[in-house]
Amino acid sequence: MPRKELSFLGRLLLQSGCEFCAAMKLRMKICTGWLHNEQLLNKTVQESSVERSQRLASQNFRTLANRQRESSADRSQRLASQNARTLLTAIGNPVLNVLNVWPHRIPELWLTVIGNQALNDPND
After folding, report:
1. CB neighbours of 105 closer than 8 A, spacing ≥ 6?
2. Helix, strand, or coil here: 97?
């Protein structure tokens, strides 16, 4: 068992007095994800600004490395699937549908809304 979990188990053992009860409490917390979330929270709170900047730099480096490894074919396929999801979302929404299909008509649509008294009712 990792050192942090042992110390946590030790604290549970002191609180409950029974090794079995402490182990069951620990297991329940692990199964519900509570322990993992608490450890992440404690790690984030205890993290210094230098550690945080190093962690973020490492994440950025991994992201950039992944993007560079991705071929142009993979990238275009990923973008196509994202566009397909956007269009499927827009099918039920006429505003999104118009914006996705005819982006060059956005000024025309705004002028229509401005001139449409039903949409610009001052009594609303």
Report:
1. 98
2. helix
pLDDT tens string 80-102: 666 666 655 555 555 555 555 55
User: What six digits make up the tokens of 114?
Assistant: 């401005």
* Better pLDDT: 71 or 37: 71
- pTM for the complete prediction? 0.24
Residues 42, 45, 47, 52: what is their CA dihedral angle, to the nearest 10 degrees? 120
Tokens 């608490």 correspond to 38
DSSP assignment of 19-38, as one string? Answer: HHHHHHHHHHHHHTTHHHHH
Amino acid at 122: P
Reference 19, options 73, 3, 1, 11; nearest CA is 11
Q: pLDDT for 11-54, tens place per residue?
A: 656 666 667 776 777 777 666 666 666 666 666 556 677 777 88
Tokens 């269009």 — which residue? 87
Q: Distance between CA atoms of 39 and 32, rounded to whole angstroms?
A: 13
